[in-house]
Specification:
heterodimer; A: 431 residues; mainly alpha; MetI-like fold; 18 helices; flat; B: 271 residues; alpha/beta; Rossmann fold; six-stranded mixed β-sheet; four-stranded antiparallel β-sheet; globular; transport (chain A); transmembrane helix (chain A)
Chain lengths: 431, 271
């Protein structure tokens, strides 16, 4: 064509050009290697150097990982079996597995209880995380905290029942009074719940030895189970509290606004570990004399306070990012404040805040290991204390800490992946 | 200023034809504003506004930017608070009581320059939200009403889409349908076509014309002088927070009295 074109513009094709494959150097793996790994001489050298470093690292880790020993009963036995070979002493994980998961004082014959609670937890959080699941499952979610409490702590079944009845009664009172005024409903509900809990307290027997599930005191909880319990409880409590604080900080009512601002600024300005020491030593002074408040509950209160202050600030960012028109659109239709917040503002603000909230949830979950400094035996407390201090396993650092890291990594990576799925799922703005 | 520009009537373009005589104005008062004043800090945005709107009226409010025309109609449904004077909507005096404000807002529809649709809800959900939650209408019935009004603004097929998937003109028509679903007795329009491309302005104005022909009481802040001439029964010109001039459209455009009105008209109609 090109030679005819010089003389004349007219052209008629006589033969069909058959389709041909592209040159080998322009497709598939060859092209990818050329473009990404060996684009220039310098790139090529860096690729080779990087491959060498990866080889060095793997050549140590892989034999250690796959040449490890899983069935001895002490570090000395491990060394005998290995005879100088490189290999991990993973026997500590198998031998101390129950301690790593449940702590060292949870009654051995009751391990099924936390296991069942764990399975229930998976079912209970499913409808919260995946809203395509049938909404009826949420009844199970609502019952889960009480069932799980009873399973893990045992004792009289009346304790969770009274707690649940108090909350249900409070809800009905709120529903009744809310029609006239929100404040009446709110405080009426709290008062009702407290009255029922107080009266219910007389029903609960002092002597719990005859209970269906033998009672387990909080100090006997431990291991990764403790981390999961603290993480789940604190995240699910601090999210609503954080929303309330964020809205309170935006309130027009000066009293509410200043309470929220002072709370947030104070709690954010104090290290978590300080709050935990307060929980373990000093919080008892704040409760009425003669009452002893459970250490687990005190720690939950402190971690929840801490993370709710952070979540409040993240949500405040989301609220600030919404255009003013959204508030006006809701107002102009006659929606009242709770409706506008619940239906229009919060769904959008929370969606914007997802990455920040997940960031805090992941951080909170990992921060539950800090309870080991106030002598609660979570998974890290177990490793640093009873396991490493024992004569059998003194000196097994890599295997134990690697295992703890793996547990946390798997959970946190899962949370992170879920949040990304959620963001994609909620993307309706088509930007 | 030449007399030629003063007497020029705005071009109505290819807007739908309107029979003004069919749109009846009753002598029942819809909105009554007496001696209303508003300040932003120490800045006096609205000064001694007196305005009575009768049921069935179509009022166009125009004026240079910053003249307070948007603020005026936003005061009517309490999106802005006035500091002095009286506003009475449908016989209810606007007070700072929240229940009173929510009641007035549910009777007065409003369309915004930037539509303010809710991006996390579908078109249908946008339209049914307020009837379900404010009017407590059953979901099914609210959806039927919503589809009726979406058909009226000619986009029933978009009901399951999200606002972000629609063009500006379609979004504004959804916003109109959303307001109509509350069965308001008064509609406020705050520059409904200012954020739209020229070809989309017509579809929105045609919807508004249709609404006017059904006897809706309308207050429109707009720069669409063709629409004003064709639909309005009264044009109000505002400047510096005051009502400077008001008249029937024909007289307003051909025979403006105040110098500022003349200047404004010559600027927007002169080209």
């Amino acid at each position: 064509m090109s030679d005819t074109h010089a003389h004349s513009v007219a052209f008629v094709r006589k033969t069909e050009i058959p389709p041909a494959p592209p040159p080998a150097s322009q497709t598939g793996i060859v092209k990818w290697l050329r473009e990404n790994l060996f684009a220039t001489w310098a790139n090529g050298l860096l690729t080779i150097a990087a491959l060498y470093v990866i080889y060095l690292v793997l050549s140590v880790i892989l034999p250690w990982l796959f040449g490890g020993v899983w069935n001895t009963s002490s570090l000395a036995e491990c060394r005998e079996v290995l005879q100088g070979r490189v290999g991990g002493c993973f026997s500590v994980l198998t031998e101390r597995w129950p301690q790593l998961i449940y702590g060292f004082t949870y009654p051995t014959d009751q391990y099924w209880r936390p296991n069942v609670a764990f399975l229930f937890m998976l079912v209970a959080i499913a409808p919260v995380l995946f809203f395509d699941l049938p909404r009826k499952l949420l009844y199970f979610t609502a019952a889960f905290p009480f069932v799980a409490y009873w399973l893990i702590w045992g004792g009289s079944i009346l304790v969770p029942i009274v707690a649940a009845v108090g909350i249900i009664a409070g809800y009905f009172v709120f529903d009744r009074l809310n029609k006239s005024s929100f404040a009446a409903g709110f405080f009426g509900a709290i008062a009702t719940a407290f009255v029922i809990w107080y009266l219910g307290g007389f029903l609960i027997p002092e002597d719990q030895s005859g209970a269906m599930l033998s009672p387990v005191p909080s100090r006997d909880l431990g291991g990764f189970m403790l981390n999961m319990m603290l993480g789940l409880t604190c995240v699910s409590l601090s999210l609503p509290l954080g929303i309330a604080l964020a809205l309170g900080r935006q309130s027009d009512m000066p009293f509410i606004k200043w309470i929220c601002v002072i709370f947030i600024e104070f709690v954010r300005g104090v290290p978590l570990i300080t709050l935990l020491f307060v929980a373990s030593v000093m919080l008892a002074y704040l409760f009425p004399p003669g009452t002893t408040t459970d250490l687990f509950l005190r720690v939950v209160i402190m971690i929840t306070m801490f993370s709710s202050a952070y979540i409040a600030e993240v949500i405040r960012g989301g609220l600030a990012a919404l255009p003013k028109g959204q508030y006006e659109g809701a107002d102009s239709l006659g929606l009242d404040y709770p409706q506008a917040m619940r239906l229009i503002i919060l769904p959008q603000a929370l969606k914007i805040s997802i990455p920040g909230i997940v960031n805090i949830a992941v951080g909170l979950f990992k921060d539950t290991t800090l309870v080991s400094v106030i002598s609660m035996f979570d998974v890290l407390g177990m490793i640093r204390g009873p396991i490493l201090a024992s004569t059998e396993w003194n000196g097994v650092y890599w295997e134990l800490l690697g295992f703890a890291s793996l547990l946390f990594f798997v959970t946190c990576y899962g949370i992170s992946q879920y949040s990304q799925w959620l963001e994609r799922r909620l993307a309706t703005d088509h930007r | 200023m030449s007399t030629e520009t003063q007497n020029q009537l705005p071009d109505t373009g290819d807007l739908a034809a309107v029979d003004q005589s069919a749109m009846k104005v009753s002598n029942e008062v819809a909105i009554s504003i007496q001696n209303m004043n508003k300040w932003y800090g120490s800045f006096h945005v609205l000064r001694d506004i007196d305005l009575t709107v009768y049921r069935g009226e179509r009022i166009v409010i125009c004026g240079p930017s910053g003249s307070g025309k948007s603020t005026l109609i936003r005061c009517i449904n309490a999106l802005e608070e006035h500091q002095k004077g009286l506003i009475e909507v449908d016989g209810t005096v606007l007070s700072s009581d929240l229940k009173n404000i929510d009641k007035i807002r549910s009777e007065v529809g409003m369309c915004f320059q930037h539509f303010n649709l809710f991006p996390h809800l579908t078109i249908l959900e946008n339209c049914t939200l307020a009837p379900i939650w404010v009017r407590k209408i059953p979901k099914k019935e609210a959806e039927e009403t919503a589809m009726h009004f979406l058909e009226k603004v000619k986009i029933p097929e978009q009901a399951d889409k999200y606002p972000g998937q629609l063009s500006g003109g379609q979004q504004q028509r959804v916003a109109i349908a959303r307001s109509l679903c509350m069965k308001p007795r008064i509609m406020l329009f705050d520059e409904p076509t200012s954020a739209l491309d020229p070809e989309m302005i017509k579809e929105v104005l045609d919807t508004m014309i249709e609404l006017a022909q059904e006897g809706m009481t309308m207050l429109c802040v707009t720069h669409e002088m063709g629409f004003a001439r064709q639909v309005a029964n009264r044009v109000i010109f505002m400047d510096a927070g005051q009502i400077v001039e008001q008249n029937e459209p024909e007289a307003f455009f051909t025979n403006p009295q105040n110098d500022r009105t003349k200047l404004f008209l010559s600027q927007i109609l002169g080209h």
